[in-house]
Design brief:
The structure is a homotrimer. Chain A is of the alpha/beta class. The first copy, chain A, is about 50% helix and about 15% strand. Chain A contains 11 helices and 10 strands. In chain A, strand 1, helix 2 and strand 2 form a beta-alpha-beta unit. In chain A, helix 1 packs antiparallel against helix 11, helix 2 runs parallel beside helix 10 and helix 9 crosses helix 10. The first copy, chain A, is globular. Chains in contact: A-B, A-C, B-C. The interface between A and B is medium-sized, with 32 and 34 residues.
């Protein structure tokens, strides 16, 4: 088992190409966050282009934030191609539970693609785990009582690593559950911090393989960077926080990670 | 009648869900501005998803900045669903008058959907009011002589609240006209400040109902925040201004609004 | 021949309308960069809208970053309309060489549209010039040995001005080659700096006509601004660099350009 800081070094050294089919709301932040974390992002959603791009990638991120029938087909195609060539697939089921179309699409992707990692907020993961949870638009409003149970149950049922992010983050492969408690409250004031974390997860599993540790490392790095960001003098609100978050992920040192990480 | 600062409090307290079908150029700024103003943004444009999302929303914003036949149909569907469930619809007719397709689409939406608020720049509102006006690309180049007349006439004809934003902002329901004169000249140096205002209008009418006062309050809050933003030491150009504008909307205090508001 | 600083003044004075069909990843930065450089950006990709918008524009930028069959048809339509009305067409062949669909699309656009300027990174231009080069995702990984030969050969074969941007930039019309060596290394840490440069090229050729000088001036202005940006105290990483880059393009003075420009 490598430490989070060692994995951070591996991502930066190997610069994994992360193919995204994602929403048009937060896509730019995902691209820049992926770069800041050490990855190389590419976004492409045409069926004519996707399989060839996936074949040169190290990981695929599927994010259903602004899904439509054309891009859902491309997500299935990207996922199946990733399965063929043996690279990990990260699913961010944005808004699942808020509408039937989102729920059906997430379930369809899980049925037709061998997903490696499911990363959602507490509400989304509770919904997928069948434990209730409430999703309003694309925000988590409430969760089932026990997120540890939710991530473990969903991971076991789907054979994936599952991460539920929020004030506290839970990551499980169905056997163990990592509980992560880094992160600034400012994270929830910026649109798409969850999407950005999914892109970083893509980079980490692309470079370090799929495990509770690699997924937890990705989440910890962004959350620790958010703490470093707000500790500076330059944050006056959500927009300056976003700027400093990206910069902090880029400049984060291994010793910062080792010193600040809070994982049980 | 509530004051603008009281309405600001109500938006922040109730966090209205604002469903957007909007352009892909400025969508991220709209999402973040909506959050900074106290709302909860969601963007979704697939016909398969739109009605269910609209049913849980407090307001709908339709912005034709990068319209195409698929999303225009979704806008009609979103608008009709909003009409069914009785939530307000804000139309931002971006670029109307610049091309026939934009003009026809804006007119079609006004015909097939009961729109609550039309919010455009001076040129766009002049065009829709039938008073001339010139729109070049998506920018207002000139307006008819009397924007007071334009907003009042268009409001009366369409049964909506109409807002024309620019160096001076005019808001009318066909009976009265509010004239707003806050705002920094930097607003015109950033792409999409008009779109961002429309998102804030969505949050305000979603939380406070549709009136000249609620629409004027939304515009005033953004414009006052723009004055606060440029008064700081951190603005060196359009991009840093945008950062500080978002932060200022987020941190604006009721007493700032009361002290700085300029409305006749 | 006008100097780069004189051309900068002409763009700012005439505010050319630049029509874009571009990717949804970096489109907001392209819009804001175009404004900062003195242009007026418009983005529209529906076949129903494109010809009318192109007819009022000064230049067209086609960027295949997130291409799909619908938008490719719109690019062809935009390019042909631009040819009819006699305005320049800038092609940014993002990711050409990485996948067959991108390569075929770039070649199709070059076959069916009279392109004025091809602007890519070293890898993309090497691929199009038939000199090897390697493109990984949308990043240049390596180039043929001699970029001077690549730009000159591709320019001669296609009858365009060709620019290959990277640590050193090469611009050629097939007869002469300008070699530009401004620019901060931070440029490569932000997603879409290449796309932003293409938007500025659109503004410059729209205002000043198509020549090695106007294309080189656009590239030099952005690169000199990047040097000014990093010389300030406000850059702590990629995201704050992007903010300062945009601000610096907006505030750049003619004397800065004259003093700092490095062109052979």
């Amino acid at each position: 088992m490598s430490s989070a800081s060692e994995m951070m070094g591996k991502v930066r050294d190997t610069c994994p190409l992360v193919h995204h089919i994602t929403n048009y709301v937060t896509v730019n932040d995902c691209a820049n966050m992926c770069i800041c974390a050490g990855g190389s992002p590419v976004m492409s959603d045409a069926a004519e282009d996707v399989p060839d791009m996936v074949r040169i990638a190290s990981a695929v991120v599927l994010n259903i934030g602004t899904l439509n029938p054309r891009t859902v087909e491309s997500m299935i195609l990207a996922g199946r191609t990733a399965n063929e060539v043996g690279i990990p697939v990260v699913l961010d089921p944005v808004g699942v539970g808020a509408t039937p179309y989102r729920t059906e699409t997430a379930e369809r992707i899980l049925r037709e693609v061998k997903v490696s990692v499911i990363k959602g907020n507490h509400g989304e993961i509770s919904v997928l785990a069948g434990l209730g949870g409430e999703v309003r638009g694309v925000d988590s409003r409430s969760s089932g009582d026990d997120m540890s149970e939710a991530v473990a149950r969903l991971a076991e049922r789907t054979g994936t690593v599952v991460a539920a992010t929020g004030p506290v983050d839970y990551v499980s492969d169905g056997r163990t559950v990592a509980v992560l408690s880094n992160g600034s409250a400012m994270m929830s004031t910026v649109s798409g911090t969850g999407c950005m974390v999914s892109s970083v997860v893509g980079a980490y599993v692309g470079a370090c393989g799929v495990s509770v540790d690699s997924v937890a490392a990705a989440i910890s790095v962004v959350n620790i960077a958010s703490e470093v960001a707000v500790s500076g003098r330059d944050v006056s609100g959500p927009a300056s926080f976003r700027t400093m978050l990206l910069d902090s992920v880029h400049s984060l040192r291994p010793e910062d990670v080792d010193r600040l990480i809070r994982r049980e």
